[in-house]
Write a structure and sequence with these properties.
The chain is built from 13 helices and 14 strands. The strands form 3 sheets. An 8-stranded mixed beta sheet has the order 1-13-9-12-6-3-4-5, sandwiched between helices. A 4-stranded mixed beta sheet has the order 7-14-10-11. The longest helix has 28 residues. By secondary structure, it is α/β, with parallel strands linked by helices. Helix 7 links the parallel strand 4 and strand 5. It starts with a helix and ends in an 18-residue tail after the last helix. It comes from Tagetes erecta (African marigold). GO terms for molecular function: beta-1,4-mannosylglycoprotein 4-beta-N-acetylglucosaminyltransferase activity. One of its GO terms (biological process) is N-acetylglucosamine metabolic process.
Length: 383
């Protein structure tokens, strides 16, 4: 007799003995259920299903909360103290930093990849305009996630007449490769920006600002770097970090913006860490600072971290409006930190911040036009 048949007979005999009589398969299942206690039922019917639901809806939160266990913090930056006052001469400012005043300032190129941030670009270029030799802007007909889009800058170009004589503008066709990692498309566009900089006429020793449109260096920071000899050839800029508007001050930890002394054949436009040096208090990073709710929806679907849109209701306009006014996270994520202390400290809504001191001057001089960016004005246009 086969072993499998013998084993099956033994199981049947076991359940006949437990149930006290010879039973059918259906009756045997009922008998098995009768032998389970209430705790087992709770585990099977409640704990396990709810556990799976919790992982499905909040698995990302769990991953981020446990980040200190699986990812070490990056190497600390070497901070460079930043000295400035409008009544202190440039020679004195250079000396305070341990640098020397140049006989003439370096040329400065401000280069950006452009998506649709018309207001942020206006505030940025108005802030930097006195000190920029050439503005370089590249846009494409595709987002990083291969969504077709218009050339928003070209459509609104007349708004930027104040930089037209110093503007190098270029376009590049998107590759529209569905399913590809968005960071590949982003890298492709940054390589194209390198070529556009050459067309703009950048030369060795010129300063190149590498940052996203919403990472705005302060004018006096760029003026300092162009007039002083002695700064590191590459320096990251420590920017005050804001979300949705200048009402929600997240922290002082934005660092991706950088300024480079250009070297032909070596300098490459990038948005990652390229040096250990970080110049303190050098400007503003206003992330997701849009006028219209539809702009939030577009950005959430368009930029490289589109995987964070885990559920379609994240894109609901009413939800987005409530998130903005509460200072909550658009993606319902935990803070991206490397220690449990920092994660816990930043959990929950961002506190309202009512100071509008030391913001870009153009923003304050045109407050009526950009009221939505100032404290106390969280309601957005529908779009």
């Amino acid at each position: 007799m086969p072993d499998g048949y013998s084993s099956s007979k033994k199981k049947d005999a076991y359940w006949d003995e437990v149930c006290g009589q010879e039973v059918s398969k259906v009756s045997r299942i009922r008998c098995m259920m009768q032998t389970l206690d209430i705790r087992t039922f709770v585990v099977l019917l409640l704990v396990i299903p709810f556990g799976f639901m919790g992982i499905y809806f909040h698995g990302q939160k769990l991953t981020y909360f446990l980040r200190p266990l699986w990812q070490s913090p990056p190497k600390p930056f070497i901070p460079i103290p930043h000295y400035y006052h409008e009544n202190v001469s440039m020679g004195s400012l250079c000396k305070l930093h341990g640098w020397k005043l140049r006989d003439y300032p370096r040329k400065v190129y401000d280069a950006v990849l452009f998506n649709n941030e018309i207001d942020m670009l206006t505030i940025r270029w108005k802030e930097l305009s006195p000190y920029i030799t050439q503005f370089v802007l590249l846009e494409t007909n595709s987002t990083f996630t291969s969504i077709p889009k218009p050339h928003y800058f070209a459509i609104n170009r007349e708004r930027f007449d104040f930089v037209e004589p110093r503007l190098t503008y270029g376009t590049i066709g998107g590759r529209f490769r569905k399913g590809e990692n968005p960071f590949v498309e982003e890298a492709y566009q940054r390589v194209a920006l390198d070529h556009l900089l050459k067309i703009a006429g950048i030369e060795d020793g010129d300063l190149l600002i590498m940052s996203d449109v919403d990472e705005i260096p302060s004018a006096h920071t760029i003026d300092l770097l162009r007039w002083c000899d002695g700064p590191p050839p590459i320096v990251h800029l420590n920017l005050n970090n804001y979300l949705y508007s200048f009402e929600f001050h997240v922290d002082h930890s934005s660092w991706r913006a950088s300024v480079h002394q250009y070297q032909k054949g070596k300098t490459r436009y990038a948005h990652y860490r390229q040096t250990d040096y970080l110049l303190a208090d050098s400007g503003w990073h206003c992330s997701f600072c849009f006028r219209k709710v539809t702009d939030f929806v577009f950005k959430m679907k368009a930029y490289s971290h589109t995987d964070r849109v885990r559920f379609t209701h994240f894109l609901d306009p009413k939800r987005i409006q409530n998130v903005i006014c509460n200072g909550d996270d658009l993606y319902d994520m935990l803070p991206e930190e490397y220690t449990f202390k920092d994660i816990v400290a930043k959990m929950g809504p961002i506190p309202h911040y009512y100071s509008a001191v030391h913001l870009p001057s153009y923003l304050l001089n045109h407050a009526d036009e950009y009221r939505y960016l100032l404290p106390g004005n969280c309601i957005r246009e529908a779009g």
